[in-house]
Design goal:
Blueprint (H helix, E strand, L loop, with lengths): L21 E4 L7 E4 L5 H9 L6 H9 L7 E5 L5 H9 L3 E5 L3 H17 L3 H4 E4 L2 E2 L4 E8 L2 E7 L15 E6 L1 H4 L9 E4 L5 H6 L2 H5 L3 E5 L2 H6 L4 H10 L2 E7 L3 E6 L31
Parallel strand pairs: 3-4, 3-10, 4-5, 6-9, 10-11
Antiparallel strand pairs: 1-2, 7-8, 7-9, 11-13, 12-13
Length: 291
C-alpha cells in the first residue's frame, strides 16, 4: 500500500543540499504562493518569465466544461513541482490525488501545498500526494531526473537530457497501479492529467477501473518518449479507445484531451455524456456545487 502525504504534514525533505524554495506570488496561483526552483530549471524558469505554466490552462477549461454531476475528483499522474495542481486547487473545488515519484520535484510540490493549506484550510482534505510512480503492476524501478528540467524525469530508462544537462542522482522508487492506490471515492474522476514522459502506456494499464468511470483525460503524446518505453502515439490512442475515450482536441506541446464516450452526466452540453449508461445508474457520482 502506498504512503500518502497530506498538507498537514511537514514538506518532504530536499534530496540534495542545494534545494531551496524561491517563493513567488503570481496571479495564476492567487491567492497562494508557489515554491519554485532555480531560474535555470525549465519549468521554474518558464513560470518566472510567463507568470504561469501554459499547459495548466486547458485543464481549467476542461474542468469547467463538466457538469455538476461529474464530481470533483482530479487525478494527476505526474504532478512534477505542483504548478498545475495549485492552479486547479486555486480555481476550482477539486479534490486532488497526485502521483509523483521524483524526490526533487516533491520537495517543491509539498512545500507549495503545505503553505497553501495554511491559507486555505479546505486543502487539508482536498490534497493527497502519493510519492510513487504509476505503472501496470507493483514493482520497483529507478527515476532519473535531468539537472535543468525537473519535468523530464523518466522511470526505468536513463533520459536523454538537453544540451549542457546531466542526469542527477537516480532514485529507487516504488511503482504501483493507480487502481490499487486510490481510495474507492477517488476512482471516479472528473478529470485525469497524465504526463509521465513516455510512461503513459504503462500507467494506463494500471488504471482500467478509473478510466471506465471518469469523464476526461489530458495526456502527453510525445512519440520519442513513448518509444523509449516500448509504446507509441498509436499504441496510446488504442489503449484510450479501448477504454471508451474519444479524442476531443489536440493541444500544443504534443498534448491531447480525450473524453469518455460511455459515461453519462459528464458535460454541461446535452450533446456530451450520452453514453450507454444512464446518469441514474452512476451512483458513484457526487454533487459538486462549486466550480
Amino acid at each position: 500500500m502506498a504512503s500518502v502525504w497530506t498538507p498537514d504534514m511537514a514538506p518532504l525533505a530536499a534530496s540534495f543540499f542545494a534545494q531551496r524554495c524561491n517563493w513567488q506570488t503570481l496571479p495564476a496561483f492567487a491567492p497562494h504562493q508557489i515554491c519554485l526552483g532555480p531560474s535555470t530549471d525549465k519549468i521554474s524558469g518558464t513560470i518566472l518569465r510567463r507568470g504561469k505554466w501554459d499547459d495548466c490552462d486547458p485543464l481549467i477549461q476542461e474542468w469547467r466544461a463538466g457538469s455538476s454531476s461529474a464530481g470533483n475528483v482530479f487525478v494527476e499522474v505526474g504532478g512534477n513541482i505542483g504548478a498545475c495542481t495549485l492552479t486547479i486547487l486555486a480555481a476550482t473545488s477539486a479534490v486532488a490525488h497526485i502521483f509523483e515519484p521524483n524526490p526533487e520535484a516533491l520537495f517543491y510540490m509539498t512545500n507549495t501545498l503545505h503553505a497553501a493549506a495554511r491559507l486555505d484550510a479546505s486543502l487539508l482534505s482536498r490534497v493527497h500526494v502519493y510519492p510513487v510512480a504509476a505503472g501496470a503492476v507493483q514493482a520497483t524501478s529507478t527515476v532519473y531526473p535531468c539537472s535543468k528540467n525537473l519535468g523530464f524525469a523518466q522511470v526505468g530508462v536513463r533520459p536523454k537530457c538537453g544540451w549542457k544537462e546531466e542526469v542527477l542522482r537516480p532514485h529507487d522508487v516504488m511503482v504501483l497501479p493507480v487502481d490499487a492506490v486510490l481510495p474507492p471515492a477517488a476512482l471516479v474522476a472528473r478529470l485525469i492529467k497524465l504526463d509521465v514522459e513516455g510512461y503513459e502506456c504503462r500507467a494506463l494499464l494500471g488504471m482500467p477501473r478509473l478510466l471506465s468511470r471518469s469523464c476526461s483525460i489530458f495526456t502527453e503524446t510525445v512519440e520519442m518518449h513513448l518509444r523509449r518505453q516500448n509504446c507509441s502515439k498509436d499504441g496510446l490512442l488504442r489503449q484510450l479507445t479501448r477504454a471508451g475515450f474519444r479524442k476531443e482536441r489536440l493541444l500544443p506541446n504534443d498534448g491531447a484531451v480525450f473524453r469518455q464516450a460511455q459515461v453519462a452526466g459528464c458535460w454541461r452540453s446535452s450533446r456530451r455524456g450520452t453514453g450507454r449508461r444512464s446518469s441514474a445508474s452512476q451512483g458513484h457520482y457526487v454533487s459538486n456545487t462549486r466550480e
